[in-house]
């Protein structure tokens, strides 16, 4: 049996080139591993996570994580199924267990126990939640909102990238905390309607409409107490100009700048001084010790219907991943973007998605 892999081929100059013949990545096929070392498991990848940070992992700049090496399998997390277990791990894993695996972009991966976290599905949950609302994106929203943003009853909270995986959870957590007004920024009319109708945001602004700054002003009549920013660039700039006195700006990401040859900082920086704004960047891994308690709370909010989630699953197998990653930066997704590497129907029967 074979194992397809997607290899990091050529550093992009600005945007990723999704062509698998001459682009950022190339397709490689190797035999599927048959022997599993005693301290490893063999997993079959079913759903691959696509993350905005992947563009930065391809840049040799100082960051929170080392870049992917050219010639290596592209880094990535997946929902995978255990298909073979090394002898030392037979008490920990069973064939058919679902795991969140640090597998990379390939159909099969040999990983150690630290790279294959078993998925415990809580009431009302499903295994793919472990890569979205009950995984890194949900945790990012949780700690960014609660530890950095610290919304209080009566606050106006604004979230950018609000219809994305992290943003939609962040906005709903602000609502749970008693925010007076939760406002989202997103890139289409449909996304804005989804935020208001399905997720209960008070207002949503489509930043692709020409008068979006005016709409943002009208949506924040008492200015912004907490801004959860996934986007950076002009949106961060406009929100700084709407900052309330002592506002907290939780800087989670800056997707508008990830593909830019020359990233832009905010021009309205003086509002940090005049409005005494606290602006703090964070990386979710900093809160790793608090993950178990956070996951428990997120799972209980999910079970109670206080948090809703959405997935955007791209069909087409492993080969679909490079184009899907490009599409993520174009806003193709509402909710967590994943690539279906192998349909669930092909999974072992023991554990079903
Ligand atoms: N700090 C951390 O530890 C941490 C951890 C995970 C993720 N993050 C960051 O969190 C952010 C969201 O990540 P995610 O995984 O949840 O992805 P996501 O929000 O589900 O997907 C990305 C979204 O960004 C929006 N976008 C793309 N280009 C944009 C632009 N130029 N201006 C405005 N919006 C744009 C698109 O929606 P529209 O249609 O609305 O444009 C797209 O759907 C990213 O910045 C990511 O790097 C940070």
TrEMBL record:
<dbReference type="InterPro" id="IPR041694">
    <property type="entry name" value="ADH_N_2"/>
</dbReference>
<dbReference type="Pfam" id="PF16884">
    <property type="entry name" value="ADH_N_2"/>
</dbReference>
<dbReference type="InterPro" id="IPR036291">
    <property type="entry name" value="NAD(P)-bd_dom_sf"/>
</dbReference>
<dbReference type="InterPro" id="IPR011032">
    <property type="entry name" value="GroES-like_sf"/>
</dbReference>
<dbReference type="InterPro" id="IPR013149">
    <property type="entry name" value="ADH-like_C"/>
</dbReference>
<protein>
    <recommendedName>
        <fullName>Enoyl reductase (ER) domain-containing protein</fullName>
    </recommendedName>
</protein>
<dbReference type="Pfam" id="PF00107">
    <property type="entry name" value="ADH_zinc_N"/>
</dbReference>
<dbReference type="InterPro" id="IPR045010">
    <property type="entry name" value="MDR_fam"/>
</dbReference>
<feature type="domain" description="Enoyl reductase (ER)">
    <location>
        <begin position="23"/>
        <end position="339"/>
    </location>
</feature>
<dbReference type="InterPro" id="IPR020843">
    <property type="entry name" value="ER"/>
</dbReference>
<keyword id="KW-0560">Oxidoreductase</keyword>
<dbReference type="GO" id="GO:0016628">
    <property type="term" value="F:oxidoreductase activity, acting on the CH-CH group of donors, NAD or NADP as acceptor"/>
</dbReference>
């Amino acid at each position: 049996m074979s194992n397809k892999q997607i290899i990091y081929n050529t550093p992009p100059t600005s945007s990723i080139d999704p062509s698998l013949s001459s682009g950022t990545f190339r397709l490689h096929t190797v035999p599927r591993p048959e022997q599993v070392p005693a301290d490893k498991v063999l997993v079959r990848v079913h759903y691959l996570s696509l993350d905005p940070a992947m563009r930065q992992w391809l840049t040799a700049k100082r960051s929170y994580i080392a870049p992917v090496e050219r010639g290596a399998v592209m880094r990535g997390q997946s929902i995978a199924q255990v298909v073979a277990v090394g002898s030392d791990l037979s008490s920990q894993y069973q064939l058919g267990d679902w795991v969140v695996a640090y597998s990379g972009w390939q159909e099969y991966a040999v990983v150690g126990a630290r790279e294959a976290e078993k998925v415990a599905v809580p009431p009302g949950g499903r295994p793919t939640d472990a890569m979205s609302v009950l995984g890194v994106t949900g945790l990012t929203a949780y700690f960014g909102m609660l530890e950095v943003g610290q919304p209080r009853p009566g606050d106006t909270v604004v979230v950018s990238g609000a219809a994305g995986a992290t943003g939609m959870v962040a906005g709903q957590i602000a609502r749970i905390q008693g925010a007076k007004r939760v406002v989202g920024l997103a890139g289409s009319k449909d996304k804005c309607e989804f935020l208001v109708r399905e997720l209960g945001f008070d207002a949503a602004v489509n930043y692709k409409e020409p008068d979006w700054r005016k709409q943002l002003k009208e949506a924040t009549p008492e200015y912004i107490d907490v801004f959860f920013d996934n986007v950076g660039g002009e949106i961060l700039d406009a929100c700084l100009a709407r900052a309330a006195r002592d506002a907290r700006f939780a800087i989670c990401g800056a997707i508008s700048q990830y593909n830019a040859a020359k990233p832009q900082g905010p021009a309205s920086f003086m509002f940090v001084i005049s409005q005494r704004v606290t602006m703090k960047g964070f990386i979710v891994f900093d809160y790793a010790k608090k993950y178990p308690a956070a996951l428990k709370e997120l799972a209980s909010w999910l079970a109670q219907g206080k948090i809703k989630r959405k997935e955007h699953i791209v069909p087409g197998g492993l080969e679909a991943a490079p184009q899907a990653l490009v599409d993520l930066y174009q806003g193709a997704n509402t909710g967590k973007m994943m690539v279906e590497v192998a349909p669930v129907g092909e999974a072992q029967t023991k554990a079903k998605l």
